[in-house]
Amino acid sequence: MKFYGLLLAKNESDIIEQTLLSIRQYGCFDGIFFYDNGSTDHTFQIVSKFNDLVLHAAVESESYSDNLKYKLLYRHADLYQEGDWLAILDADELYAENIAPLIDIAINSNANYIETKSAQFYMTEQDDATFFDPGRPAIEQRSHYLVNYGEPRLFRYTAGQPLTDHMVKSRHASMRLAPAKLLVNHFQYRSAQQLQTRVDIRQANNKTSGNWGHVSKTRWQDYVVPSRLLHQFTGEFQYGLPSDVNLYKTCTNTAYTAGTLRWLAKNSYLTASEAGFLTASKLKKLAHRFL
């Protein structure tokens, strides 16, 4: 059994080295395939230094879409054999635990894909938004998070049955979920400049791809989350919401969306009272706001 990954990135030079170091440490990869999707910074040069890990590095001119990742992954299908595992990697998503035991669990439970549980690190009012140091661990610079999202990331290869974005998002009937999830640290909010560029690119891309409808606000400041609504990493991860959060009195923000709250509820990370917020009527929500 071998393990391969696909990494598609654009202008991620401030984080991608930390990402690749985490993949090297925790990933047990036989190799990854890297495609640069039009970077104007040093992303390609940084990735090229990891020649012990990167089997293939190239520039990809096709406009980004979620399905492009799967298209590129299966471009290398001549290397895969039945029972190998494949991963979709994100340039700002750092592995936080060893993958090998999770693959063993998946195999033993007859599962053919593994989802993540993503510790999403947000920019807060306590952070220096003007600066992010690529040479310093991201978790020391952006330490406030919620584990509030996850998606399929690792897949058992089956010859003649290539995956597509639609199949994965719809959880096709052929997909069998593993009972254990992979913990990753997601640093998509790193500095004001990086965040504003991210927002601009995703909104422009959404006009043709429809991938980023949830990125609806235009200013980077709109994605800053009050620190009191998040956990702060001090060496051990916490799950669920901070104990003093009242959803009825918490304004919607990028960490507390309907989607993230549903994910938390689905994975049993909300208390009964917090889960009740999701099904409460508008009248009940309004009444509780002033109680």
Write the layout of secondary structure elements.
Blueprint: E1 3-9, H1 16-26, E2 31-36, H2 43-48, E3 54-59, H3 66-73, E4 85-89, E5 93-95, H4 100-108, E6 113-122, H5 138-141, E7 144-149, E8 152-156, H6 165-169, E9 182-186, H7 192-209, E10 231-232, H8 258-266, H9 272-279, H10 282-289
Parallel strand pairs: 1-2, 1-4, 2-3, 6-9
Antiparallel strand pairs: 4-8, 5-9, 6-7, 6-8, 7-10
CATH topology of the domain at 3-113 and 148-178: Spore Coat Polysaccharide Biosynthesis Protein SpsA, Chain A
Strand percent estimate: 15-25%
- Overall, the morphology is globular
CATH architecture of the domain at 3-113 and 148-178: Alpha-Beta Complex
What oligomeric state do these chains adopt? single chain
Mean pLDDT: 93
Rg, Å, rounded: 19 Å
Order of helices and strands: EHEHEHEEHEHEEHEHEHHH
Overall SS class: alpha/beta
Give unreliable regions as ranges: none
Count the DSSP helices: 10
Strand tally:
10
Helix content: 25-40%
CATH class of the domain at 3-113 and 148-178: Alpha Beta
CATH superfamily placement of the domain at 3-113 and 148-178: Spore Coat Polysaccharide Biosynthesis Protein SpsA, Chain A
What is the terminal separation in angstroms?
58 Å
**Most strands sheet:** 10 strands, mixed
